[in-house]
Amino acid sequence: TQLLEQSPQFLSIQEGENLTVYCNSSSVFSSLQWYRQEPGEGPVLLVTVVTGGEVKKLKRLTFQFGDARKDSSLHITAAQPGDTGLYLCAGIDSNYQLIWGAGTKLIIKP
Amino acid sequence: ETGVTQTPRHLVMGMTNKKSLKCEQHLGHNAMYWYKQSAKKPLELMFVYSLEERVENNSVPSRFSPECPNSSHLFLHLHTLQPEDSALYLCASSQGTGGSTDTQYFGPGTRLTVL
User: Fold this and answer.
1) Which of A4, A42, A98 sits opposite B90 (nearest CB)?
2) A32 forms bridges with which residues in the sheet?
3) DSSP, res B65
4) Which residues of chain B have a Cβ shorter than 8 Å from any chain A Cβ?
């Protein structure tokens, strides 16, 4: 069974702080997606990373795909209350199956 | 607003009830999906429909019965559910034909509680 482990499961920090969340696996993925799910809503795709070592930025969010395409990280600079939500990663494996992580629940306190 | 709507948003039902969840997409997409989301667990793909035909059924108990009457509507019929079926049920759609590389657009979900 392929797993995508997300860590930490829960993170609560003050507005203005920086944070990093991780998505790790022992499997190689052809691409990896990051979603944000706000309370009462469905997940919304933030970014897709495809190439090993790739870095993508979305305003204060920086996404990186590991060189071996087995892991990824999401770094948020100067977190805002609007960043609060559940962050999900999902990877496409060699069988073209979409494998989901369990998510990191992030709370940014004003 | 992602263009995918789900009704009802909340549902409480007894184990002997029969109810249906409805999903509608306004994006002109070809594929629709049902997922189950439980706390602290990965999303579980339940069913995939492409051009109104079921293309995937991931060992889901028969007490869940999907229906896709056209490319814009998807239903999930529920009967004799168990308390462990309580979860958020998410509908999604994609422009492609249901492959894993398609970008999926999710609805807000139906929060189901089985008593």
Assistant:
1) A42
2) A49, A91
3) E
4) 2, 4, 9, 40-43, 45, 90-92, 99-101, 103-104, 106-109
> Distance (Å, rounded) from C-alpha A101 to C-alpha B9?
24
Contact criterion met (CB below 8 Å) for B114 and B13? yes
CB pair distance less than 8 Å for B100 and A4: no
pLDDT tens digits, B14-57 = 988 899 999 999 999 999 999 999 999 999 999 999 988 888 77
Single-letter amino acid code for the residue at B110:
T
